[in-house]
Structures are given as structure tokens and as C-alpha cells.
Amino acid sequence: MLNSIYTEVALKSPGMYPNALTAGGEPGIEGMRAAARGITGLTIQDYVLIDMQGFSDLIDALGGVDVTVTDRVTLGGDEALNGVVEWFEPGKQHRDGYHATWYARSRHGTGDYDRMARQRILQEALLRQFNPANVLTKFQGVAKAGEEVVKSDVPQGMLDYFTNLEGKTRELPVGSVELVPNNGVDPQDPDYDSISLIATTL
């Protein structure tokens, strides 16, 4: 449910964060930041928000991405687009930004948790294939295309720091916690104590 907070706050309850715009943010962003802080207890210092077109442009700027498709998935929200059905077939494929984004977003014939799994596959593929300096350089280029594509409050002077930090931690193991019903998590009524136990067993 976390991904709906941005839209819900922005459209229905912007008054919850009356100072967001003057502080250089947005109500939806501040709602997401507050929710993440409330759930994890962490201080969320900065954010980067990139819309789907920006994400697609970033992948194109990087020359595409190799993705291993695990299950047959149709492109788009409907099975037939203009009378033509296009499928992502199982196996390793090189995809441009448009197709990679659709692979991660396709909903037809699958559920939200299947879509979340594909998004993780795409994210991990991007992290494996591109070094942080390259991504940062291309990311800055995409960001210059327009404020509606990328928004962030990360200070410009911190970008080199984050690049160096990512390089130092690149070889460390990364764990993930899937907060899904298969792991005993109810997304509509999460038990955070149980989630903490799940995380500590990884």
C-alpha cells in the first residue's frame, strides 16, 4: 500500500503538509517520507523521484538492459494492442527502455505481486550491469530533460559522495524482505513486529 500514499496525499490530503512546497518538496513526497520513517524508524534525509518516462529514458541512455524473463508476459495493459499481441518470452533478452518498463509494469493476466517480482528483476539487472559513475552521469543528463521527469532534494555536492559510497558497498551482500502474503504479511494490516522477525532471519 506504500506506493499509493504519494497519489492519495497529493490528490486528497495536500493540507497535511502545508509547508511542503515552500520547503522545496511536495505533499505526496512528504507523505511518503513520513510513512517510510514511521514504518522503519529511519530518518529519510533525501529523495529522488523519477517518473516512468524518465526511467525509460535512463535505460535507453545506458544502452538498454539485459533481463531474464521467467514467465511469459504480454506487453501492455490489454492482451491485444491494435490487434497485435506482443509477448515477453521466457529467457534472457536485451530490452530498450520502453520494453523494459512495460515488462516491469504489465498487469494483464498477472497480479500485483507478480508485477512487483518483475520490478525487482529489472532493478537487480540494472544494478548488476551498470557502474555507479555511468548511471550517475546518464541520470544527470535525463534529469536535465525536465523537472517533470526527475525531482530530488539531494544536494548537488553530495552526488560524488554517494557514487563513492555505492562503489565501496557494491561487493557486499544485499538482502531483501518481500512483504507479501506468501511471507505471512497482510499489506492492509501489517504487523511490524512480525516483519522485523522476518527481516532478522534473512
What does this structure look like?
The protein is mainly alpha-helical and 202 residues long. Among the domains are: 1-44, no CATH class; 175-202, no CATH class. It is 45% helix and 10% strand. It has helices at 5-12, 27-40, 52-61, 97-105, 112-129, 132-143, 159-169, 192-200, and strands at residues 48-50, 65-69, 73-74, 87-88, 91-95, 150-152. Strands 1-6 form a two-stranded antiparallel sheet. Strands 2-5 form a two-stranded antiparallel sheet. The longest helix is centred in the middle third of the chain and has 18 residues, at 112-129. The model has no long low-confidence stretch (mean pLDDT 80).
Secondary structure layout:
Blueprint (H helix, E strand, L loop, with lengths): L4 H8 L14 H14 L7 E3 L1 H10 L3 E5 L3 E2 L12 E2 L2 E5 L1 H9 L6 H18 L2 H12 L6 E3 L6 H11 L22 H9 L2
Antiparallel strand pairs: 1-6, 2-5, 3-4
Helix pairs in contact: 1-2, 3-4, 3-6, 4-5
The overall pLDDT average reads: 80
Which geometry do the CA atoms define? globular
Structural class: mainly alpha
In the predicted model, the low-confidence regions spanning at least 5 consecutive residues are none
Q: How far apart lie the N and C ends? A: 23 Å
- The helical percent reads 40-55%
The H-and-E topology, N to C, reads as HHEHEEEEHHHEHH
